[in-house]
Amino acid sequence: MQPVSKDSNFSIMYLTSEVKTNIFSAYGKTATDTGSAEGQIALFTHRIQHLTEHLKINRNDKVTERSLVRLVGKRRRLLDYLKEKEIERYREIIRKLNIRK
């Protein structure tokens, strides 16, 4: 296991409560709206981006790779739900987060 250096772009606490609040206020209906599909999708997207960067450096980290696959699946299911229920909200979140359909 490699120690985390001070030069590293990654911090151990990459997902602080402040970051979560910023994500939910930007993509949810309110800053405390943690249950909306849009807020959850945005949070998963943030985590997916972080894990992807981690895997670029640590290619043999199979546990993180598995976590990434699970997160992508969770986000996909939420996107499918949103697409089925309210197509306009789905299109809006896809556009805002710049993720593939």
How are the secondary structure elements laid out?
Elements: H1 17-27, H2 37-57, H3 62-85, H4 87-97
Keywords:
mainly alpha, Helix Hairpins, 4 helices, globular
General description of the model:
The chain is mainly α and 101 residues long. It has a domain of 64 residues: S15/NS1, RNA-binding (Helix Hairpins, Orthogonal Bundle), CATH 1.10.287.10. It is 66% helix and 0% strand. It is built from four helices and no strands. Helix 1 packs across helix 2 and helix 2 runs antiparallel to helix 3.
Tell me the CATH architecture of the domain at 34-97: Orthogonal Bundle
N→C terminal distance? 36 Å
Please tally the helical runs, counting DSSP H or I stretches of 4 or more residues: 4
CATH topology of the domain at 34-97: Helix Hairpins
Question: From the helix content, strand content and strand pairing, which structural class follows?
Answer: mainly alpha
CATH homologous superfamily label of the domain at 34-97: S15/NS1, RNA-binding
CATH class of the domain at 34-97: Mainly Alpha
Please tell me the overall pLDDT.
87
The value of Rg in angstroms is 15 Å
Helix content: 55-70%
Largest sheet: none
Number of strands: 0
The outline comes out as: globular
Q: Low-confidence runs (pLDDT<50, min 5 residues)?
A: 1-7
Q: What is the helix/strand order? A: HHHH
Strand content: under 5%
